[in-house]
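S.,

Sequence below, as promised.
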Amino acid sequence: MTVTTNGIDIHYTLEGEGPLVTMSHSLGCNLTMWDEQARLLKQRYQVLRLDTRGHGQTSAPAGAYTLEQLAEDLCGLLTELGITQTHFVGLSMGGMIGQVFALRYPHMVQSLALCDTTSRVPPDARPNWEERIRTVQTGGMEALVEPTIEGWFTASFREQRRDVIDKVRAMLRSTPPQGYIGCCHAIPKLDTSERLGEIRCPAIVIVGAQDPRTPVAAARTIHEALPSSDLVVLESASHLSNMEQPEAFNKALLDFLGRSV
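The prediction came back faster than expected:
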């Protein structure tokens, strides 16, 4: 399904009945990243998943994006669907969008699950994002596939679960280069650390113990800044912890939502 808002067409799925849970994916992925979680959640909740601007079947305009713009896309989608409040789950870039959205629209967020994400990109990391942009400009998305896979999953999982790895490779390859680049301009500007204390809704911070992209230390910073939050560290998981350890991830998320609804 698609709605037009904030100047773009946003692709989304809406399944199940009950309290609403909105799910936002990582950079370079799409809403199918949440398939395993949606399968369980829709038995108890209404689950809204969306393709972020520049990803999946959502519009991918050229140019630099901002996290504020991505949060406005989310707000526009919810408004078009007549939704005034939601529980929110975001991983990596999705968690960044969730932080910005919760700070801009606190009345709309009933609870917040921030997974394998960070609240600040330090200035010395920004050249890495500029390099990613150059890589995609010269080599397309294919040039990023294997380096990304290595950073997103542990070595043992890459060897044992080729089916999951191939699914993620396909998501990366299908991401429009201009959409990926647009988001690469947005992410380095993230800095919500000093404002997280303003978020008053229940929150959980989930992170893979072996996540090199947004490590446990970054998750702990968010946890310590949020007044009402839990911290869950998933063993034997890297950056896409929801896909590498779905059972442990799902248990943590379902337990949290059960306490928050």
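Strands lie at 2-5, 8-15, 20-24, 46-50, 86-91, 109-115, 203-208, 229-234.

Coffee later?
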